[in-house]
Structures are given as C-alpha cells and as structure tokens.
C-alpha cells in the first residue's frame, strides 16, 4: 500500500474527532477567539477616531501582536508547569477583562496597554489550543482535526469582526468593550474539562505499551526529525519548516492589513460595505480551513499551497477597486478561501515534519509567524498609506504576496521529491 492509500484508509476510519476533551477545547476556543475578533477591527477605529490616525490604528494591532509574539515562546513552559486548565483560563481572562477598563477610562496609552494584555492572552490561547488539538487527533486524522479546530478559531470571526464594527457604530464603543469581557468569562467553565497536563490519553497509553508517541507510532512526514533540540523554538532549526513559516507569515501580513484598515478604507463608501466584506471573508475562511484539512488527510496538503497563496494575493489585489462593492466582495471571497487554506496547509505540513514530541514547539513557531505577520502588516501598512493612500497600499501588499509563490512552489517540489 503506497503512502497516499494508507493515508486515505486511516482518514476514513471510524475514530471520532469530537471526543469530550476536544469538544471542550472547541468551546473554550470559541469564547476566547470571540473576545479577540469582536475588538480586532474596533480598537483601530477607536484609536483613529480619538486622533491617532492611520498610524495610531496600526499601532493598536501592532502592539497586540507584539505582546503575542513575545508571550508565545513561554507558553510550553507554562503548560508543563501549570497544566492546560490554569494556563488557558488565564489566557481567556487576559483576552477579555482588560477591555472592560476602556469603558471606564479613555486614553491612547491605556488603549495600547489593553492591546498588550490582550496580546498575551491571545498567545496563550492559540499556542495551547493548537498543540492540544494535534495531540487529541485520532490516528490518520490530524489534518482534519486541525481543520475542525481551525473552524473554532474562525467561526467567531464570522460574527465578531462585522458585529464589532456594526455595534460600535450603533451603540458606541463602551458596550462592545463590556460584551467582550462577558464573552470570555462565559467560556471559562469549559476549561475545567481540559486535560490537566499536556500528556493525552493516547500518549499515556503509548508509554505503557513502550511506544512514546502513542498508538500508531510516530507519524512523521518528510523532513521530520527525532528529538528536535529543546527550548521553546527548538523546532525552528528544522529547515523543512522554514518555507511554510515564511508563507504563513506573508499571508497573515495581508490579513493584518485587511482587518485593521478595511473599515477605515471604506469609510464614506456604501453603507455597511465594510461589515458585509468582513462577514464574507470571515465566513469563507473557516470553511476553507476545514475543507483543506479534509483534503490534506486524503490527498496530501502540498497540492493546495500554490492555489491558496495565489487566492490570497488576488483577493488583496482586488481591493485596489475600493469604489466597486462587487469587486470588494469577490475579493473577500478569494482572500477568505486562500487564507483559510494557507492556515491549515502550513500547520498540517509543519506537524508532519516533526515527531509528536515536537508538537508544542511547532505550535509556537506557527503562531509566532501568524501573529508577527499580522502585527507587521498593521504597522507597516499604517506607515505606508500616509504616503500612498489605500489603493496603492493594497497593490503593494498584493505584489509582496505574489513573491511568496516562489517558496510555495519550491516547498511543493520538496514534498514530491521526499515522497517519491
């Protein structure tokens, strides 16, 4: 049986994805990411209308992503020290409660402080959740399980991104700040059912049977190394992870530009176009992420990488025509489909290239690339548009994305050579 046939047979087995720990992880993730997305486009608007302008808007997202990037490497240590329950619970509180402070006091430095606290909470939730989703996957269905987890991260954006902008326009900013705090608190009970420590039932069973990586052995893909170096970023030295990391960072650079500046770019245009555009993008992305996971377990993820990157680039390029609502909406469909697929393909590929013992470190590297890209996109675009305006800024971003087709093509050839 060749590798593809074995992968398809395992993926179509009867192992359940929605176990109780996985279901509770999804609930906690929905609550945490709901609090994240509800304010993601609102805080830039809040900063800009308070006199910060485009630079101030970019700094809100940039500060949050900076704190996330700084916090993420420490998360595996905190997990090993305190366990999933305490760490994820702390992440949820940091994502939500600081926003309530803005309903009482208003200043740009305080806004940046809230963004920093939320960034730490985001780093905790996504690193812990990504590693746990990989560990909880049944044999042969890791990519699909990651796609399901990706839906739990993406579904809140479907409502949160447009709802935050709409509610702040209708009710003001303060009610949205309070709603964010309440949403994350509602997710806290689910944390009590998460595994206390990082070892899952599969890995505990593997230790008893003499297999350190659980039933089914150590599922590895091309480039996997036994026992990567220690430390939070030990997995980063695996050279096979460089291209997926670069590709993800470029895609999230564009995402940081979009979620921060699209509402500002469309101010003065057709009523509610920004809300509809964000809703469309946020709806398509999680579906694409799950679909990419289903495809990847059965046919391999590498075949999706080039078209996914191309879709992100074309979707960004379409925003040059901001005066056309039809072009904007079609661009958001393309961007959402490509961005969702890029997320799953790069994550599944990186997990395939390390042993199970490296899952935590891969989660850190992947999330660092994701959040660093978003932060750099928001700050860089904020500096750029003061000189170019929005259409040319989107055009420059699209050109940068097209350049990423080169490493995407090389990575596909690498996978084909390794599996030949």
Task: Summarize the model shown.
The protein is built from 16 helices and no strands. It has helices at 3-11, 20-40, 42-71, 75-101, 108-135, 142-171, 173-186, 188-191, 201-209, 242-265, 273-299, 305-317, 325-352, 359-388, 390-403, 405-419.
Verbal overview:
This protein has helices spanning 3-11, 20-40, 42-71, 75-101, 108-135, 142-171, 173-186, 188-191, 201-209, 242-265, 273-299, 305-317, 325-352, 359-388, 390-403, 405-419. It has 420 residues and is mainly α. The protein is globular and about 50 Å long.
Q: Uncertain segments of ≥5 residues (pLDDT<50)?
A: 1-14, 199-237
How large is the share of residues in beta strands? under 5%
N-to-C CA distance = 14 Å
Radius of gyration: 20 Å
Overall pLDDT confidence = 80
Structural class: mainly alpha
Give the helix tally: 16
Q: Tally of extended strands?
A: 0
- Biggest sheet record: none
User: How would the global form be characterised?
Assistant: globular
Summarize the amount of helix as a percent range: over 70%
Oligomerization status of the protein chains: single chain
What is the N-to-C order of secondary-structure elements (H for helix, E for strand)?
HHHHHHHHHHHHHHHH
Question: Which helices and strands appear, and what pairs or packs with what?
Answer:
Blueprint: H1 3-11, H2 20-40, H3 42-71, H4 75-101, H5 108-135, H6 142-171, H7 173-186, H8 188-191, H9 201-209, H10 242-265, H11 273-299, H12 305-317, H13 325-352, H14 359-388, H15 390-403, H16 405-419
Helix pairs in contact: 2-4, 2-5, 2-6, 2-7, 3-5, 3-10, 3-14, 4-5, 4-7, 5-6, 5-14, 6-7, 6-11, 6-13, 10-12, 10-13, 10-14, 10-15, 10-16, 11-13, 12-13, 12-15, 12-16, 13-14, 14-15
């Amino acid at each position: 049986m060749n590798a593809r046939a074995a992968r398809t047979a395992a993926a179509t087995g009867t192992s359940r994805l929605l176990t109780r720990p996985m279901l509770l992880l999804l609930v906690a993730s929905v609550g945490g990411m709901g609090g994240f997305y509800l304010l993601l486009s609102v805080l830039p608007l809040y900063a800009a209308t308070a006199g910060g302008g485009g630079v101030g808007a970019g700094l809100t997202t940039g500060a949050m992503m900076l704190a996330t990037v700084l916090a993420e490497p420490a998360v595996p240590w905190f997990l090993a020290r305190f366990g999933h329950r305490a760490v994820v619970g702390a992440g949820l509180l940091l994502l939500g409660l600081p926003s309530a402070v803005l309903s009482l006091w208003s200043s740009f430095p305080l806004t940046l402080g809230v963004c920093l606290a939320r960034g730490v909470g985001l780093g905790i939730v996504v690193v812990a959740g990504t590693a746990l989703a990989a560990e909880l996957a049944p044999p042969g269905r890791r990519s699909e399980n990651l796609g399901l987890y990706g839906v739990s991260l993406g579904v809140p954006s479907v409502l949160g991104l447009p709802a935050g902008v709409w509610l702040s326009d209708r009710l003001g900013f303060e009610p949205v700040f309070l709603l964010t705090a309440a949403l994350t608190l509602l997710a806290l009970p689910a944390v009590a059912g998460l595994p206390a420590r990082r070892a899952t039932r599969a890995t505990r069973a593997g230790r008893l049977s003499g297999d350190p990586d659980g039933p089914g052995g150590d599922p590895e893909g091309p480039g996997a190394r036994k026992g990567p170096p220690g430390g939070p970023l030990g997995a980063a030295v695996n050279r096979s992870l460089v291209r997926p990391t670069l590709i993800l960072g470029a895609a999230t650079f564009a995402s940081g530009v979009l979620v921060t500046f699209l509402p500002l770019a469309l101010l003065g245009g057709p009523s509610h176009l920004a809300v509809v555009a964000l809703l469309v993008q946020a709806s398509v992305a999680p579906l694409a992420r799950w679909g990419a996971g289903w495809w990847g377990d059965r046919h391999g993820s590498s075949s999706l990488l080039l078209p996914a990157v191309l879709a992100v680039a074309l979707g960004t390029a379409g925003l040059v025509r901001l005066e056309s609502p039809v072009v904007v909406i079609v661009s958001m469909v393309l961007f959402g489909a490509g961005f969702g697929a890029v997320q799953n393909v790069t994550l599944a590929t990186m997990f395939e290239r390390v042993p199970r013992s490296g899952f935590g470190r891969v989660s850190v590297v992947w999330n660092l690339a994701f959040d660093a890209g978003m932060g750099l996109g928001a700050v860089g675009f904020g500096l750029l548009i003061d000189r170019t305006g929005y259409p040319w800024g989107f055009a420059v971003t699209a050109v940068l994305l097209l350049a990423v087709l080169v490493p995407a093509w090389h990575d596909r050839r690498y996978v084909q050579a390794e599996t030949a």
